[in-house]
Design goal:
Shape: elongated
Distance between the termini: 54 Å
Radius of gyration: 24 Å
Largest sheet: none
Helix content: 55-70%
Structural class: mainly alpha
Length: 76
């Protein structure tokens, strides 16, 4: 794609920071907010894994066995 078309497309997309008014720009995320979001994500991920283990018991048991085998054969 020629550069002029590429520039025109990116300029029309309106995704540059200059197009957003200062009042509407998002504030930088604090460490506490990031940790809170991460904790929520990890809780939901664990919940999803537990649900999958309940819904597919045979596959979950096989995965548990593979993990145990990996741990048994692991060398320090």
């Amino acid at each position: 794609m020629p550069d002029s078309k590429r520039r025109a497309r990116s300029a029309s997309a309106g995704d540059t920071a200059d197009d957003i008014p200062a009042a509407e720009r998002p504030e930088p995320e604090t460490d506490a907010e990031r940790r809170r979001r991460r904790a929520v994500f990890l809780r939901e991920l664990t919940e999803a894994r537990e649900l999958r283990a309940r819904v597919q018991p045979r596959r979950a048991r096989a995965a548990r066995m593979r993990q145990q085998m990996r741990m048994r054969t692991f060398r320090w």
